[in-house]
Design goal:
homodimer, alpha/beta, eight-stranded mixed beta sheet, 16 helices, elongated, Adenine_deam_C (chains A, B), Amidohydro-rel (chains A, B), EC 3.5.4.2 (chains A, B)
């Protein structure tokens, strides 16, 4: 707010100036009182002036009795999970009524460090979608694999002052908080000094550990599993984000803990969403509708998706329909099931009938393109010498990112090297370091992927995003890895030495500037090939499954660029037991 | 919060360090969920660490099952109304469980301008009570009398950056907002630029005027009269402070508009309280208990008096009992009727059984003492020549600050000067400018004060705080005025040329460093004399009534240092109709 805008708003209210737009005949959702009232909304200079239908206006829109509600806010997301650049992501989610997101660029920062922060800020500047960032607190997420960057307190301090950086991102290192590790406390100090927020991520943290976590003013959590956990976090002053992402969902599990008296302390978030689920189910609107469907009072659910998030993140200019606030709003025919018929941002119509009117402008991702610094890689690096026929094997559990730590009988050739046996569902899996040209390649075995012949590789590999590749023979695997190196990253499938299809993710190997619809169709085609020609069973996702096989903080056995990692023992382990 | 404190808190939670204090066996009021739970509260370095009874502690206090609730917050008050300096005020209200106040030093700033702001900041530094200030937005409140200072945007800009100045004080000039007057908008701009808040004061403002008022982000109002007004303000994003002061009270009137869905948008305030009402009824505890008595859920009422005010005023370190927050709390035997059995501030016991343990330290009010710059005053200045026997007379309406504009038959002497008639309840009243030595004296007549013989004078005279004097003869009046000039201000009573008693207010003529109990007893004695020896009728307050006779923004007829003012016509008027 400034004097000029305030004066314009007053002048419109008092009839001394014309509004740019007057929306009449609406049922306005009042998220402060959690009621609906009939009125009009006038807009000037992108902000709401008055509820009076009698102000003068250049243009009038008859809402025909529809509900007018604030633009929705996603309290916590990783844009990278959509495979979309900020601009393409904006086009996708704005059409669903989301007008503001709090994004943690944890994935791309693990690849490109501060360059990634700068890219995300630049690429999200001036979009229809308001993008606020949290500075990722845990880069790298673990010491057991090599990420592209190490972001310590000096890096946090360098960026946290930016007006669109709201604070320190989800503090996944809760053991580091409990231990008050100096390098963790130094990052918190940056947020304290800047007067900014700290997001949480505290699955299963409870009692005195939760006290310690809250005591250092970590303000949010989106990792609750039960209503009791929600109550305990709210009790300690935290906001709880109810999450409805593509894979991780807890809205319905947590709702029994939400009531009239604590509803102002909950918000909604998506965390990680694939374009498919956004296009098919929706974004924050989907979470709101789920909550309403489960019995939450609509105005309370809408307040959670707007006012509460704005309050938590101190976005004083939005989160409600009220004079002086940004004119970010949705027209919906219903309040029991909200549908973003028309979406207005700063008073301009930007989407209609679920489609964006004008795609957002992209910026060139120069500093985060071609992030493939792989040294001395060739097929020979994938050889896996075994001392016996009994080997440790990563066991895929369908629908889970947890794996089993198996010991299986496998085939070896005359030189003692692993060879694929058509009769056994055991494939080779490798993680190839791609950030610093270390030449690291970790090779292991995996069971349950079901592929008969060929290779699949991806540069999305949480959280360090090295190249992960699975395959029935070293040649196909090497072709797949080289394809990703050549394209700057993405997901590729190879059979008989030939690339079947590549879903290119040219931005840090994680995202693309292509639009959501194209990405959606590509991914659909990719899945079709994986399930058909490659024979991956339908109870696992061929690509997301791979993406978690290198994450050495989730049990039980994982492959990193430094070798096979026993998460339970929290140490590297030998392939032969 | 800083790293050092955060580390200490974590260490206590995790058992690596001892807490300073552990309060066990409490029913903790959870204002986030609005519930009560049994637990313990540990404190280190003035902040709450954990709810666990198992942390190690240097000292343990058994709360014996009492309720432990956050220290109360007064969302809007004028400390000056208590006649007490900030230190004496702290002693008084802390004993009632109020641990934080948002104070608008509007009165003293009308006397001493920026010196008054500096004094209030200095005198409230380091008290047990946390005193935050709002920079008064309306000094002077009117052009129709002479105040001690004119505070424009440059003055606001000079002080609003102070860490204990939360923003711009109650914007009483709502017509100035509706008109978007540049000097008013310039003050708002100071708050916008500093990222600070703006308090409201908008009696009867509605519809498009209220839209305009809210559109410029005025964030609070404490002047609602009906539940509908409360709803309309909350709807526009404002917080509503329910007021329970000595004279102005609206808690019970507004409560019917408060429900589970909007309760998070209301707070409590006292605005103006005399020491007597605080000592006899209480402070914010009184308002909370009234609300609970009228049916408000206790946890909601307590949240209104704590969390909601802290949220509104962005005091992130207080307002609840939770790890990481200041250890400002109360032990009360009941939650249905809270009683501040014991009051802790920063974890230290400061009051017990309604009594402060150690009086707060005062600072010398040098720059705001002896604020009596009165020029060329003597008895002759009180002469009132009349052109006829018919004169305009200010008519007191008992229990109201509104007056009647009367025309009465009065007595004149041979020279045409007004003389007091024992048979008529018509006295002379005068306002003597005391800030700039202008020599201004305005003289008029008043009916209904009931005094038979003598004079009463006070330097509390809203909002400019010139000396106001009423009397049956000029000599007594002159003695009274001279007594106030000699003592630096206060309230005095004179009869037959002798001072009967003076309640000295040596700080700007408004406040004293004497303690609340002394002030209470002095005022009781003063009232006894006024009602007894001077014959003032009991249906009016002899001193507060006078204090509003110079306020030319409240109808209908008032006396200012520039003369008789017809508020209805909004112009000066002649004594003879």
């Amino acid at each position: 707010m400034d004097k000029k805008l305030a004066t314009r708003l007053i002048d419109v209210c008092e009839g001394r100036a014309e509004a740019d737009l007057l929306v009449t005949n609406c049922k306005i959702v009042d998220v402060f009182n959690k009621t609906v009232f009939e009125g009009a909304v006038s807009v000037v200079d992108g902000h709401i002036a008055s509820f009076s239908p009698e102000v003068k206006a250049k243009r009038t829109l008859d809402a025909k009795g529809r509900y007018l509600l604030p633009g929705l806010i996603d309290a916590h997301c990783h844009i990278e999970s959509s495979h979309l650049s900020p601009a393409a992501y904006s086009d996708l989610v704005v059409a669903k009524g989301t007008t503001t997101v709090i994004a943690d660029p944890h994935e791309i920062c693990n690849v490109a460090g501060l360059d990634a922060m700068r890219y995300m800020l630049l690429a999200s500047e001036g979009l229809p979608l308001s993008v606020y960032l949290m500075f990722p607190s845990c880069v790298p997420a673990t010491d057991s694999e090599h990420a592209g960057a190490v972001l310590l307190a000096d890096s946090v301090a360098a960026m946290i002052g930016h007006e669109r950086v709201l604070g320190l991102g989800e503090m996944m290192n809760y053991p580091g908080i409990a231990a008050a590790l100096p390098f963790v406390m130094d990052k918190l100090e940056c947020a304290y000094q800047a007067g900014k927020l700290i997001d949480g991520h505290a699955p299963d943290v409870k009692d005195r550990d939760l006290d310690a976590y809250a005591a250092c003013r970590i303000r949010t959590d989106h990792e609750c599993s039960t209503p009791e956990e929600l109550t305990e976090r709210i009790r300690r002053g935290m906001y709880v984000a109810l999450r409805q992402g593509t894979a991780c969902r807890n809205v319905l599990d947590l709702l029994p803990g939400v009531n009239a008296d604590n509803a102002s302390r909950v918000m909604f978030c998506t965390d990680d969403c694939q374009p498919q689920s956004i296009m098919e189910n929706g974004h924050i609107d989907y979470a709101v509708n789920l909550a309403i469907g489960a019995g939450m009072k609509p105005e309370r659910a809408i307040a959670a998706a707007t006012l509460n998030a704005a309050t938590c993140y101190r976005l004083a200019d939005r989160g409600a329909i009220a004079p002086g606030l940004r004119a970010d709003f949705i027209l919906s025919p219903s309040i029991e099931h909200i549908v973003a018929d028309e979406v207005f941002i700063s008073g301009n119509l930007v989407a209609q009938g679920g489609r964006i009117l004008k795609p957002a402008a992209h910026i060139r991702p120069e500093k985060v393109s071609g992030m493939m610094d792989v040294a001395s890689f060739d097929e020979s690096r994938l050889a896996l010498p075994l001392k016996s026929d009994r080997a440790r094997v990563i066991g895929i559990i369908p629908g889970s990112v947890v794996t089993e730590n198996l010991v299986e009988e496998v085939r070896r050739d005359a030189d003692g090297l692993f060879v694929h046996d058509d009769g056994l569902d055991i494939l080779k899996i490798a993680s190839i370091e791609r950030h610093h040209g270390t030449g690291n390649v970790g090779v292991g075995l995996i069971k349950g992927y079901g592929m008969k012949r060929g290779a699949v590789a991806t540069s999305i590999s949480h959280d360090s995003h090295n190249i992960i590749v699975v395959g029935s023979d070293d040649k196909d695997m090497a072709v797949a890895v080289k394809e990703l190196i050549a394209t700057g990253g993405g997901i590729t499938m190879v059979q008989d030495g030939k690339v079947l299809m590549t879903h290119t993710l040219e931005i840090a190997g994680l995202m693309t500037d292509r639009d959501a619809h194209t990405v959606y169709e590509e991914l659909a085609k990719m899945h079709e090939i994986a399930y058909g020609q490659l024979g991956v069973p339908k109870d696992i996702d061929p690509f997301m499954t791979l993406s978690f096989m290198a994450l050495p903080v989730i049990p039980a056995l994982k492959i990193t660029d430094s070798g096979l990692f026993d998460v339970t023992a929290f140490s590297f382990t030998d392939i032969n037991p």
